[in-house]
Specification:
The chain is α/β, with parallel strands linked by helices. It folds into 2 domains: 80 residues, Arc Repressor Mutant, subunit A; 211 residues, D-Maltodextrin-Binding Protein, domain 2. The protein has 13 helices and 11 strands. The protein is globular. The N and C termini lie far apart (62 Å).
Length: 310
């Protein structure tokens, strides 16, 4: 095949799939992200290798790494994909219309508990805009934004680079939850002794929730090392499941515990001192995003009314 034919045959879908395999270091994880079977993902990459006449990936057990040729292909594929996005955005901006791709990055709590209804409403109003959502920890979202791999970041951290522009679009509260009918549920306010005697399920290190919890404990004069930490969990949803199972008490976002509280499978304990509050932010490289799609979404989400959990 002639070299100038490659660009016509290696369409957007195949480039994205290959890049996902490299980034996740796994055919199975990449296939899951693309809603494909693992065998279909393997055939797709094999087809690229056959067309190019070189091996792109090395399979070492369950881990996949790119060959030297595969690294070159990955670098060019990412540039092509970013070029496609910029082309769509530049044309729509020049025409004054919002269409094409909108690349969003979000941390887990707003992604799972705030964005579903908002994105549904946005897509209904703007069916011509295609949304590409990446879910990661705050640090990962901000890194993707700085590298211009996404147009807007949605995060829950105050530690935002001063070179980025952040605007509050929603608020949250971190509460302490326990299994239903917990013996501390009727207390008006917990004491230091109450806290250090309970088995805890703590948020993962590096998460926005964990940072808030550590600050709260320090403000209450509680050494976190004195807590009986039974488990550390990175998923807010799994934290709630572990509390429902009776494994211990846990700090969690109001948004993530809303359904469980409503069902009566967990109860909210009354913490001493001030409430643990935080804000959710829209973060961009520029105060006014360059693309019409990003400007449209930013204006929409700032006006969107989110329900208050309880």
């Amino acid at each position: 095949m002639r070299s100038h034919d490659y660009a016509r045959t290696m369409e957007d879908h195949r480039l994205k799939s290959y890049c996902l395999v490299v980034e996740t270091k796994s055919f199975s994880r990449a296939a899951q992200a693309k809603h494909m079977t693992q065998s279909a993902m393997s055939r797709l990459v094999k087809g690229l290798e056959d067309e190019l006449g070189v091996k792109l990936l090395l399979r070492e057990g369950k881990t996949v790494t790119p060959t030297p040729e595969g690294k070159i292909f990955y670098d060019h594929a990412k540039k092509l994909l970013e070029g496609y996005v910029r082309l769509e955005q530049d044309i729509s901006s020049a025409a004054g219309t919002a269409r094409g791709s909108l690349r969003l990055g979000s941390s887990r709590t707003p992604a799972f508990h705030l964005l579903s209804q908002a994105l549904y409403d946005f897509s209904k109003n703007h069916p011509e805009i295609r949304i590409d959502l990446t879910i990661a920890r705050t640090v990962g979202v901000l890194r993707e934004l700085r590298e211009r791999r996404i147009d807007i970041g949605i995060v829950e951290s105050l530690d935002i680079d001063e070179k980025l522009f952040a605007e509050v679009f929603a608020e949250d509260e971190i509460v302490l939850i326990a299994p239903e009918n917990h013996n501390l549920a009727k207390k008006k306010s917990l004491t230091l002794q109450d806290l250090i005697t309970q088995p805890f399920i703590m948020p993962g290190l590096g998460s926005g929730t964990r940072a808030l919890v550590d600050n709260f404990l320090e403000g209450q004069g509680i050494d976190a090392r004195r807590l009986n930490v039974r488990m550390t969990v990175g998923s807010p949803e799994f934290v709630v499941h572990m509390v429902q199972a009776g494994l211990g008490v846990a700090f969690a976002s109001k948004w993530s515990v809303f359904s469980a509280v409503k069902e009566g499978t967990v109860t909210v304990l009354r913490l001493p001192g001030k409430k643990i509050l935080r804000k959710f932010y829209l973060v961009t490289i520029d105060r006014d995003p360059a693309s019409a799609t990003a400007r449209t979404f930013k204006g929409f989400i700032k006006q969107h009314r989110f329900f208050v959990p309880f």
